[in-house]
Amino acid sequence: MVTAVAQRLLSQRKQVDDTLAHFSLNRDQLRVVRDKMRVELERGLRKDSHSSASVKMLPAFVFQTPDGTERGKYLALDLGGTNFRVLVVKIRSGIRKSVRMYNKIYAIPHEIMQGTGEELFDHIVHCISDFLDYMGMKNTRLPLGFTFSFPCRQTGIDKGSLVSWTKGFKATDCEDHDVVDMLRDAIKRRNEFDLDIVAVVNDTVGTMMTCAYEDSKCEIGLIAGTGSNVCYMEDMRNIETVEGDEGQMCVNTEWGGFGENGCIEDIRTKFDREVDEGSLNSGKQRFEKMTSGMYLGEIVRQILIDLTKRGLLFRGRITEPLKTRGIFETKFLSQIERFISTYTLIIALMHLQSLGSTCDDSIIVKEVCGAVSHRAAQLCGAGMAAIVEKIRENRGLEHLEITVGVDGTLYKLHPHFSRVLKDTVRDLAPKCTVSFVLSEDGSGKGAALITAVARRYCGGAQQQYLYSMRFSDETLLEIMSRFRRELEKGLSQDTNPTATVKMLPTFVRSIPDGTEKGDFIALDLGGSNFRILRVKVSHEKKQTVQMETEIYDTPEDIIHGSGTRLFDHVAECLGDFMEKHKIKDKKLPVGFTFSFPCAQTKLDEGILLTWTKRFKASGVEGMDVVKLLNKAIKKRGVRFTDIMAVVNDTVGTMMTCGFDDHRCEVGIIIGTGTNACYMEEMRHIELVEGDEGRMCINTEWGAFGDDGMLEDIRTDFDRDIDRGSLNPGKQLFEKMVSGMYMGELVRLILVKMAREGLLFEGRITPELLTKGKFETKHISAIEKSKEGLSKAKEILARLGVEPSADDCIAVQHVCAIVSFRSASLVAATLAAILTRLKDNKHVPRLKTTVGIDGSLYKMHPQYARRLHKTVRRLVPECDVRFLLSESGSGKGAAMVTAWAYRLADQTRSQTFNSGMSSVTPI
Ligand code: G6P
Ligand code: G6P
Ligand code: BGC
Ligand code: BGC
């Protein structure tokens, strides 16, 4: 008899143990979870895998944690956890640094959570209205931070469209809609008060910010509550779904979705599947359903039902309460696990659940709860280990010390959850020391801090005007296709007269082929320096180039005076050069790099269409610059062979780079001005006769937009720059992009920000108001990653302002936005040229080299990388090598001259033989 009872008990015990064994994860299994989480984190960050990643890694548009200088009075909403709160948060900075909060909790009835979107947002606004009445604040238009604890795809700090509802919410017509717009609309519908909605914030981000206000090491936010989620500060360079490489941005991982692609099926149990099937979002948030408060009770209930059905519990009787979904709240789980004495536990169970349990039953129930919550804590720990390891690797550290700000009822109320979580992280991420700090004040405080920062940098400044300087890839692709159409318009004979992008034939028909040789003079006029060079190309075994260079001044009064004086000056410098280099008596062929738009009908003719950049000498537009230069040289009595070729700097650059890389078929300049040339098929160049082979086209892309084509992306600053320029209405693309204008753009923005009190405490100095005082080279200095901020301080001090640390950060931010816009625009137009080349060649992938020159590209610390990255993103079907021209356009011009000279020589001998005369272009 005794044996039978014992056996029955033993068998019962074994069956319970076997059931719960599925919840016990060993170290190896947890390591696998950690590693899979890491894979999904990376997939979520990468552009190509983002859409299929189960961990969405949503950019939060929060660029830094608080630094204690935040201040002001804010309204905050906190929706999505157990409670819906409306708060006023008053933040003081300085020695009286403090945060005071007043809040009221409101209920969100079940039928509203799952009603229509309009009802939900009307209800929220009703609660705000009540709160404002209660606080006597109806008439103050406060800035609002909105903690919205659901996955949102953000495109800015105040824009976020709901990806999908989670937890207990399921209101209709909200998914894929912007929650800020929905809130604004509801405020309008009520028409009682107005609010300035500045930021929408996930609760993890709010929690991280709340904790970071006290502890600057806090760079991770964890919620273990109704839902489960983590955010952390990621390096911008790793977030491929957002433009920009500099600094950091908070990423809301939405790790609750982990496993949606089936990658953790091996550890999910049948109980997890039952909970999932009975949920509002079946198939979704699989990790969340194993780890968060909303579901742990449900898992326990499913196990209890199973054990009861098998006669192992409650004498096999399934009571009504046990059948009720949601009855087993997570707080019961916490309570049950906290009860030590079986007696109190039975009482509690009977009381809470009317489950009619016995002593054995209550022990089993406690074990079930323990198994479920223990697994939840371990899984969160494994996920956290993946995050901290990623941060450690990002920073290249042997050891990382970091703080996690945590909130959520599960973490706060459960007796063992936090300990198991910490133990697991310690075990699985041994190279990281991770401290967990409980957020005492909820996410509302963090949302207010974010609002304070956003209003300072974004709400005021970036929001209104800087924001429109950041382009999405969609916009860039649109600009790319507009430019592609412009290219085609310029190439066709019918439409060329009205095209802004002139697509000028250059009569250069191939890149250097290695046979060029000779002794040449190259003039190089139009960039930041006027150079004269002697270029010797020799051929002993290997082609080698020797160059001697002099730089000459081009004073303002000369470039703005008469054309005759300008060319006299050039001729004078040439005479000086020949004297200095003792070649006065040599008749060397001359190549003339002239970096302005010229119409050519042959290599040695260039009719200046219009001056650009700093030049404005009279009587030159419409004239052949070769003739003008010849005349000036003759006047000076310098002995020389004819000017053999006039070459745009882009063409010179392409030829210089083509000398080293035969694939080079594009030349671009990003310097004082900007422009590009590329090798086009003759059959498409309607302005030149002949269909065979290719010819280099000088696009003159600087004029893109002169017909209003770019008005939707130009800002008021661009219009100001244009009005104050030497050539208003012209070169509008160049004025958004090139070095001659970028410094001035930044200066105009800084003046506006200072006027609005967003910078320098509103102080504006005469230097700051002086045109040209902020140069493009200053942008390059300020954007240096290490000494950038101290450079900003130095440069701003020279402008007479005493910048605070915040001012320096804001100025650095402005510089980055302006220079980033430039790189993005050039990437778009260059991408259009690349697709054109690819289509011309009818190849599925284009492999090509782009030769580049120009001071902006060369000097700016981040420009090149940003440009390359953006081009690769816009045209993934092109493998592009970017080759910096080390020796300027002069070398390339000499290559062209060598060709021209050789052909002219041949023609001369033919002419001699046949009596014909003309210089055949190469
Ligand atoms: C925070 C917030 C909530 C958030 C919650 C998570 O403090 O202010 O908005 O969603 O914690 O906890 P819960 O357990 O309520 O889901
Ligand atoms: C090249 C040239 C210049 C050209 C310049 C553009 O190397 O040799 O003549 O115009 O680069 O750069 P910059 O920044 O000087 O305008
Ligand atoms: C949501 C997250 C949120 C988490 C914690 C999840 O269901 O998707 O956005 O952070 O719950 O509240
Ligand atoms: C000129 C181009 C030149 C570019 C770069 C532009 O202003 O119009 O001809 O290539 O500057 O120097």
UniProtKB/TrEMBL annotation:
Q: Name one GO biological process term.
A: intracellular glucose homeostasis
If you read the UniProt record, what top EC class would you report for this enzyme, in one word? Answer: transferase
Main location per the UniProt record: cytoplasm
Q: What is its EC number?
A: 2.7.1.1
InterPro entries given in the database record: ATPase_NBD, Hexokinase, Hexokinase_BS, Hexokinase_C, Hexokinase_N
The pathway where this protein functions is: Carbohydrate degradation; glycolysis; D-glyceraldehyde 3-phosphate and glycerone phosphate from D-glucose: step 1/4; Carbohydrate metabolism; hexose metabolism
Q: Output the Gene Ontology cellular-component terms.
A: cytosol; mitochondrial membrane
Q: Which residue numbers delimit the Hexokinase N-terminal domain?
A: 16-213, 463-658
Q: What is the superkingdom listed in this entry's lineage?
A: Eukaryota
Which subcellular locations apply to this protein? Cytoplasm; Mitochondrion membrane
Q: Which GO terms describe its molecular function?
A: ATP binding; D-glucose binding; fructokinase activity; glucokinase activity
Q: Which reaction does it catalyse?
A: D-glucose + ATP = D-glucose 6-phosphate + ADP + H(+); a D-hexose + ATP = a D-hexose 6-phosphate + ADP + H(+)
Please report the name of this protein according to its UniProt entry: hexokinase
Q: What organism is listed for this UniProt entry?
A: Denticeps clupeoides
Lineage, highest ranks first: Eukaryota, Metazoa, Chordata, Craniata, Vertebrata
- Provide the gene name from the record: HK1
